[in-house]
Write a structure and sequence with these properties.
With 396 residues, the protein is an alpha+beta fold. It has 2 domains: 40-186, Aminotransferase class 4, branched-chain amino acid transferase, N-terminal domain (D-amino Acid Aminotransferase, Chain A, domain 1, 2-Layer Sandwich); 197-384, Alpha-Beta Barrel (D-amino Acid Aminotransferase, Chain A, domain 2). 21% of the residues lie in helices and 28% in strands. It contains 8 helices and 19 strands. The chain has helices spanning 3-9, 83-86, 109-122, 130-143, 226-234, 288-302, 323-331, 373-384; strands at residues 27-28, 52-59, 63-64, 68-71, 89-91, 94-98, 104-107, 155-164, 176-186, 197-202, 239-244, 249-253, 261-269, 272-277, 314-318, 335-342, 346-355, 358-361, 393-395. Strands 1, 2, 3, 4, 5, 6, 7, 8, 9 and 19 form a 10-stranded mixed sheet that branches. Strands 10, 11, 12, 13, 14, 15, 16, 17 and 18 form a 9-stranded mixed sheet that branches. A hairpin with a 3-residue loop joins strand 2 (52-59) and strand 3 (63-64). Helix 3 packs across helix 4 and helix 6 crosses helix 8 (373-384). The chain is globular, with a radius of gyration of 23 Å. 44% of the residues are buried. The chain binds pyridoxal-5'-phosphate. Pyridoxal-5'-phosphate binds at residues 93, 217, 252, 254, 259-261, 285, 287-290, 342-343.
């Protein structure tokens, strides 16, 4: 082959170098009319936002653009923006906590960065260096950290979002995207003690299916849950318990507002207690709280770090659980408790599941929590608010 022909076949066209996400390019425009944070007892989840937000544009020609921290305010979008037509949007949810000494921390934020990139990959939005975004998020939180209410149990909810905002309709990888991060001060999920929730085991709607998008934090997973949520509420239940397949395997619980995943429950098998949660089979969102609950339970079971008041013999299983098994265990008095886990509520006890026309009753402890969730919750919350030192807590 002649050199000439070679150059026609492989013209060495240089791909333009796409810029990575670069924190050192950050531009900060201070809000000249900062708001006064409202009294903490008036806070409603997700209704109040701080003075600033972070935005980072991306386009297919140059890559990530200039990160900006600027006054919180409306975005400008063309009506043709693909996010508005094809749900090219994904998000994350994490919290910034303030400990007793006044230090601000994030809880395992590297996991949120990884999950956000996984979500981006799944819908062909651009990925980014997670450490770089975390650096920028910390700078944003530092600027607005006085918005974290001083009262115990309060925190700052951090909502990173990535959208496709190509200005031309057509389904494909967008040639423009926008990553933004907003902050919302929030109070404790349970201001006056744990309130167990009643779930509706829904057999008429599906949240996720094998090969679908249930394992990713995509906007597209949530709008279809609103109608089933309304139906469950009309029947007197607070949430849907999403079931899968002919055997009605338990998958997860998703609230429309603060998200909450269905997590472990416990059965007594011989002399041991089993903490069971469905496996990450592509239909379950890999929750940071779920992972933390499992890690703490495993540390306890292995003797690495014993949790006070937790059963000595604890078996931890990630395996399928059917409604038939739950009903049988409840009927035999072997069901110890059931709970969900997520950033918003940390642990949510369940006291009842409506299923095929009847209620399955689940035991709850005096204060709503059970003998497994209580010690795990205590350790988890201790690590989140800094009362218990751990490497999960990352200084801002
Ligand atoms: C965000 C979310 C959760 C909770 O995940 P955490 O990382 O623990 O906050 C659970 N289930 C679904 C469907 C979610 O979107």
């Amino acid at each position: 082959m002649t050199g000439e022909l070679m150059s026609v076949l492989s013209p060495h066209r240089r791909r333009p170098q796409l810029s990575p996400l670069e924190p050192s390019r950050l531009e900060i425009t201070r809000n000249t009319a900062p708001a006064t944070p409202p009294p903490s007892q008036t806070l409603v989840f997700g209704h109040t936002f701080t003075d600033h937000m972070l935005t980072i544009p991306w386009d297919a020609v140059s890559g990530w653009g200039t990160p900006q921290i600027k006054p919180y305010g409306p975005l400008q979008l063309e009506p043709s923006a693909t996010v508005l037509h094809y749900a090219q949007t994904l998000f994350e949810g994490m919290k910034a906590y303030r400990d007793e000494a006044g230090n601000v921390t994030l809880f395992r934020p590297d996991m949120n960065m990884k999950r956000m990139n996984n979500s981006a990959r799944r819908i062909a939005l651009p990925t980014f260096n997670g450490d770089a975004l975390l650096d920028l998020i910390k700078q944003l939180v530092r600027i607005d950290k006085h918005w974290i209410p001083k009262e115990p149990g309060h925190s700052l909810y951090v909502r990173p979002t990535l959208i496709g905002n190509q200005k031309a309709i057509g389904v494909g990888p967008p040639n423009e995207a926008l990553l933004f991060v907003i902050l919302s001060p929030v109070g404790p999920y349970y201001p006056s003690g744990f309130k167990p929730v009643a779930l509706y085991g829904t057999t008429e709607f599906v949240r996720a299916a094998p090969g679908g998008t249930g394992a990713f934090k995509l906007g597209v997973n949530y709008a279809p849950g609103v109608l089933p949520q309304k139906s469950a509420a009309a029947l007197g239940y607070s949430q849907n318990l999403w079931l899968h397949g002919p055997e009605h395997h338990l998958t997860e619980v998703t609230e429309v507002r603060p998200f909450r995943c269905w997590t472990p429950r416990r059965l007594t098998v011989s002399a041991a207690t089993e903490l069971v949660t469905p496996p990450l089979d592509g239909m379950i969102l890999p929750g940071v709280t779920r992972d933390s609950v499992l890690a703490l339970a495993r540390e306890h079971a292995s003797g690495k770090k014993r949790l006070p008041n937790l059963a000595d013999k604890l078996i931890i299983s990630e395996r399928g659980v059917t409604m038939k098994e739950v009903k049988a265990a409840a009927a035999a008095g072997r069901l110890v408790e059931m709970f969900g886990a997520g950033t918003a509520a940390v642990i949510s006890p369940v006291d009842r599941i409506g299923y095929m026309g009847e209620d399955v009753h689940i035991p709850t402890g005096e204060d709503g929590m059970g003998p497994v969730s209580r010690p795990i919750w205590t350790e988890l919350v201790g690590r989140q608010w800094g009362a218990i030192a751990s490497e999960w807590s990352v200084p801002v």
